[in-house]
Predict the structure of Potassium channel domain-containing protein.
Amino acid sequence: IRNYSIWFDYRMSNHSAPLLARGHLDPMDQDLNQNSLTSSRKRRLRRCRSAPRGDCMYNDDEDVKTDEPPPHRSIIPMFRDLNPNLREVILFFVLYLTTGTLCFYLVRNQISGNKTNGVLDAVYFCVVTMTTVGYGDLVPSSSTSRLLACAFVFSGMVLVGHLLSRAADYLVERQETLLAKAFDLRKTVGPTEILKELHTKLRHKCYVTFLVLVVLVLVGTIFLVMFEKMPVIEALYCVCSTVTTLGYGDRSFNSGTGRLFAVFWILTSTICLAQFFLYVAELNAETKQRELVKWVLTRRITNNDLEAADLDGDGVIVAAEFILYKLKEMGKIDEEDIDGILQEFEQLDYDDSGTLTNSDLILAQTTS
């Protein structure tokens, strides 16, 4: 097929121009010939770059590989467009909440405190335990209920940590997507503008998360004032102690309506606060890294720097040595990383020539 496509390109390129000059091809035929040439070149370039399998097929109109099965689609309509990381976290959360509610409902007679409804109190106690708020309005009073509380508080902390980890992974994926788009942006703007754009987006996320947190605090305060009949100061005090998972216990949600609201509000507010701290930490780390990179790139190079950058000691600094020295100075790479990379290079360099070829890779893989 590949040889035939090359022969076809050659025939079309040699015969299309004379036919057009003699007027034997109309514009529609010309467009078809041009599309055939373009698609054929695309197929050859794909084979040259990535060497796909023989059964690979591409859609010439959309330039999409079609031999792989489509990604898994959830049977639940609301989950189809969710990020896979978020979908996994939601499944874990539903499993945790269902199991916790069932367990605490079975031992509801072994939990003392201000009770409203058996199922609602079980869900409420499970959420308060998972978020480590621990008001104290519901307290386990037997050995069995206390062991369950110990188990669910640790598993709840693991679940929250897993949620934040997945959120961080999602941030990394989004940044990789933005960096991929940055290659197209470089056609119109420089790399400095791209870095500023990424930094601005992260700062914007911090502002949005903080705004959502403020809204949640106001909603919680207004709810406590209207439904729990608390004074404004006490309501704000209860909201702040809940969001920060402090949970003194002197003020809490006592009514059935309040606990139903608390099941959703406590989860949202505590996770939003943790997410805000995650964004702030990432923004601070990125800011410090940018300042360090700027200082490294703008400071003057001395003779001591040249001596340190001369890795092979030949008195000459090549571009690779200079780049490695700058990366080490920025903290992006260290000696252990370089040693590991050099060891891998030496293992692949089968003939000890200082260069890598296809024969070196084949011999190294065969030997291993």
